[in-house]
Amino acid sequence: MLYLLDTANLDEIKKAFDLYPMSGVTTNPTIISRENKSFIKILKNIRETIGQDKMLHVQVISTHAQEIVKEAEYLNKTIGGNLYIKIPVIPEGIKAIKILKLKGIKVTATAVFTAQQALIAAVSGAEFVAPYVNRIDSISGNGAGVVSQIVTLFKNYNLNCKVLAASFKNVQQVQDVSLCGAHSVTVNPAIMGDLLSHPLTDKSVTQFISDWESVYGTGKVTYDVK
Length: 226
Prior knowledge:
Blueprint: E1 2-6, H1 10-19, E2 22-26, H2 29-35, H3 39-50, E3 55-59, H4 65-79, E4 83-88, H5 91-103, E5 107-112, H6 115-124, E6 128-131, H7 133-137, H8 143-156, E7 162-165, H9 171-180, E8 184-187, H10 189-194, H11 199-216
């Protein structure tokens, strides 16, 4: 499983990369706009923070293939590193994915709501597809079910494309897509923390410390005692 952080906030990124096994960062126009700063400066700061090898996914704004390609080439040149251009699975987006594949620019197909959208994007050359799990659930669909269908289709056709499941509101949704075989997930900082959180874990740690300190003294750790 690849864990990616869905944010453009540098403090949140630094904290998550310090604590957890993060593989990269994903952004979108909404997330970027929340920072209310220079777009390129935000991206360059993220790249500097996570390094050249970690994944950074950045979305284009254009809706026509040639303009999408132009944006992708600009971002690839300006930001660099292990960069993925996020392109919605509209017809012009699919056209752009085909062009960028030939140019060697990596793509994440985004705004995916059906397995067929994901399949077409993968056949066109996308490296990742990002199904919106919670948004599918919110319209009485089955987000995890769509992820499962995509995983099955990729296996059936031996496609070298990964599922980057996105749009989560709770830990259970992340668990469900993990069981379905999603290759990666992108979650906000709160959910990333919640994936490890459990009251019985906290209770166990408290009990361990209490029992230890009752014998070896308050504040003592293993290298303080013999």
